[in-house]
Amino acid sequence: MNAYKTYVRMDASSRVVLEGMPFPEGALLEVLVVDQTRQPEERTESWRALMRHVQRLPQSAVLTDADIAAEIDAQRGEC
After folding, report:
1. Domain membership flag for residue 63
2. 46 Cβ contact partners less than 8 Å away, ≥ 6 residues apart
3. Which spans in 2-79 are helix H?
4. What's the whole-model pTM score?
5. How many domains does the chain have?
6. pLDDT digits (tens, 9 = 90+) for 29-40
7. 72 assigned to some structural domain
């Protein structure tokens, strides 16, 4: 997969124009739009809140280090 990262600002008409893209004419492109206005502290706190939620799930209470290691090994074996 070829990827190209750039930044643009939303204009007053709520349009985004991408210019100078390094892909051939007619190429099918996947576009992911991510709002970069959140501050790093907000992203960090959002991640921490998610982890606190996951750690409070009933399934997390019975999860052992051995379970985690086995899951990692299983996933690595599928790659």
Report:
1. yes
2. none
3. 40-56, 58-61, 65-78
4. 0.40
5. 1
6. 998 888 888 788
7. yes
